[in-house]
Amino acid sequence: MDWKPDRKIRKPIYKQIAEYIENGIADGTFPLDKPLPSERSLANLYRVNRSTVVAAYSELEANGLVERKKGSGTTISRDIWGLTKKRIPSWNRYIEAGSFLPNIPVMQRLRKEMEEEHLINLASGELSEDLFPNEFIRRTISSKDFNGYLGYDHPQGNIELRETIVNHVRDYRNINTNSHSVLITSGAQQALQLVVQCLLKPGDAVAIENPSYSFSLPIFKTAGLKIFYLSVGKNGINPDDLIELYKKHRLKMLFLNPIFQNPTGTLLPYLQRRNILDISSKFGIPVIEDDPYSLSSFVEDDASTLKSMDRNGNVLYISSLSKIAAPGLRIGWIIGPSAVIERLADAKQQFDFGHSTVSQWIGNEFLSSTYFEEHLPLLTEKLKKRRDLMIKYLHYYLDDHVECHTPMGGIHLWCRFKKEINELQLLEESIKAGVIFAPGTTLGTEKGHIRLTFARGNEEQIHEGIKRLAKAYEML
User: Fold this and answer.
1) How confident is the prediction for the chain on average, in pLDDT?
2) Entry pTM
3) Which residues pair with 263 in a beta bridge?
4) In the prediction, which pLDDT does 286 show?
5) What angle is formed at CA 176 by the lines to CA 175 and CA 179, rounded to 5 degrees?
6) CATH classification for the domain delimited by 105-125+379-474, as one of 3.30.2290.10, 3.90.1150.10, 3.40.50.12710, 2.60.40.1730
7) CA separation, residue 361 to residues 137, 294, 306, 358, 367 (Å)
8) What is 13-97's CATH topology?
9) 1-21, pLDDT tens digit by residue?
């Protein structure tokens, strides 16, 4: 078999292999009375993953050309003309044809690698388990009578939780609102998806930060939006860039993470936050404020959210319990004009008929408890200690090679290598060394950056993780 797949063309390799075998069956290259090559042998021959060959054989099986039996391998179908053959769907074709785009391959790879216990995870943007309020939740579940309703709840979410969130954002974030203006969501991710799907249409122009968490989300491209980037510097975005983008492209919406931004950790200065709101009001640009980190400030002066400064109702505010309690609770919320909230709630009800009443009950108990007042300063103290440790070990192991912005809150370090590197190649070497991180190109257009999360690993893992990263860097 002299044929080889062509890696320069856009057609997937598994399809090329499937077409080659199909043509080989037709012209006799693969005789009807002999088994086809094994998955492993074809994978070795073509230097591809075995899963690629599996996909090719699945395609041929769906078309009725081959039969696959466990332990016997793959053979050409005895009923190749399909007279009696029962056909199965070609699932690969359906997967590729779906309108909702998958995560980019690097993100899919990271998700799979996170399942490996031997790897130190500095990639995932979440708290480590020892930072969760586990004891409080266990005590709540075991010692308190569940008094919630187990049927479908209000489309906007449980009224008690919404009222608790109203009090919470007033006391901790200086945001004044009411329960009619709050929608409970399955974390901030669902909140963003509802906004994109319900308030925008294909062809609308939106602005996001570069780099940013939103950069890696396929929901914007799935919705057919035109995406324009606002460069994030040491002091966040430049409001003048927003004006220029609006005049050129008539922006319909701005997505912003102004407080300890992901991934850079930058804090948008007060005057720039004020300017953003003035521009929003002048041109009528809605602002979607994503605020996971404002309560994890390492300094005494708390940063004001855009929503707390918003006097005209221009800001839709998104936050959650994921970065201050536990992501597994899946409690997020949107605060905005009641008409918008009703529209988003109607869509959410179509998706899932409302949020889990049990997790809403736990979330309400947590936010309304005196424990929360104790938990928050302890959390920020531990996060600050881990930030300092990560910076210390980066200086020790990679001081001459990397520079990082020191965030005043949040959970991420944004690091730039001083010499030109391929961060995807560094990721491959790091996986071999036993540590993973988020490559910068999954979060923005600038190369040579990586994001390290200091909340995901404990102190020992942070030390060992940076040591392994330095080892991987030496292999480049």
Assistant:
1) 90
2) 0.83
3) none
4) 97
5) 115
6) 3.90.1150.10
7) 11, 24, 28, 5, 10
8) Arc Repressor Mutant, subunit A (1.10.10)
9) 688 898 888 888 999 999 998
